[in-house]
UniProtKB/TrEMBL annotation:
A Gene Ontology term for the protein's cellular component: plasma membrane
One of the Pfam families matching this protein, by short name: ABC_tran
Provenance organism: Methylomonas paludis
Protein name, per record: Urea ABC transporter ATP-binding protein UrtD
Gene name for this UniProt entry: urtD
SUPFAM superfamilies, per the entry: P-loop containing nucleoside triphosphate hydrolases (SSF52540)
Signal peptide, first to last residue: none
Length: 248
């Protein structure tokens, strides 16, 4: 019942480390424009799954497709990034000494070789792109300030903005609200919701209340496989899910 067709399609993926199955016959289908949350206890395989999608880890077997036709197992990490799959790690890594604006500008050139040239001038289209992202991440009023003065939450939004500058198709977001204040958590939910549809987003997150506030569909991982998928209500009332979390 897909609306737009798959953006990511994994089938029967297996990854083992020294005989330990980190991913065990894992299959996953992400619809284009979807905002999906991945939950599951520690060691369930969430990080390994992200590593497989970005090409950091190559599975022992299985298939991983981007869209209908691009076989990600044939591509290395930079080539996968170039298809428009990008990842945001838990800790924000912005350049404190550069302004918010300059951080976004730098990110726009991260995948190209145009940044360090002496004769570089921003054109109107690039300028507009930066301003659009500033508006999306709600940091317009701080654009001329060094990123070093931002709060933890603002740095996280700036880093999401830096990903947006690269016009990603798929965003993999690792624990976006760790360490945030309640108000920052709410704004992060608004930001992620505003991005769905334009981008396909997979969020790995432990905070169930936050997951409920953003996701229509939640995937529960357990022992390297998909235990179940559904709405937050469906998965939270699933006896197998309760069992897995009680047993943690
Ligand atoms: P999660 O992110 O859900 O906590 P992970 O994907 O990090 O789970 O880990 C799944 C399992 O695989 C864990 O038991 C972990 O110890 C193991 N694992 C992950 N990466 C490696 C690695 N590089 N070498 C050995 N074992 C690993």
């Amino acid at each position: 019942d897909s609306r737009h067709g798959p953006i990511l399609y994994l089938e029967d993926v297996n990854v083992s480390f020294d005989g330990f199955k980190a991913l065990n016959h894992l299959s996953l289908y992400i619809d284009s424009g979807e905002l999906r949350c991945m939950i599951g206890p520690n060691g369930a395989g969430k990080t390994t799954l992200m590593d497989v999608i970005t090409g950091k880890t190559k599975p022992d077997s299985g298939s991983v497709y981007f869209g209908q036709t691009i076989n990600l197992l044939e591509l290395d990490e930079p080539a996968i990034a170039a298809t428009g799959i990008c990842r945001k790690f838990q800790k924000p890594s912005v350049f404190d000494a550069l302004t918010v604006f300059e951080n976004l500008e730098l990110a726009m050139h991260a995948d190209k070789r145009t940044w360090p040239t002496l004769f570089y001038r921003r054109n109107a289209e690039q300028n507009e792109r930066i301003h659009n992202v500033l508006d999306t991440i709600k940091l317009t009023s701080l654009s001329k300030h060094p990123a070093g003065i931002l709060s933890h939450g603002q740095k996280q939004w700036l880093e999401i903005g830096m990903l947006l500058m690269q016009e990603p198709k798929v965003m993999l977001v690792d624990e976006p609200i760790a360490g945030m204040t309640h108000q920052e958590v709410e704004r992060t939910a608004e930001l992620l919701l505003s991005l769905q549809g334009k981008h396909s987003i997979i969020v790995v997150e432990h905070d169930m209340e936050f997951v409920r506030s953003i996701a229509q569909k939640v995937t529960v991982l357990h022992e390297g496989s998909v235990l179940t998928e559904g709405t937050m209500d469906e998965v939270q009332n699933d006896p197998r899910v309760i069992q897995v979390y009680l047993g943690e």
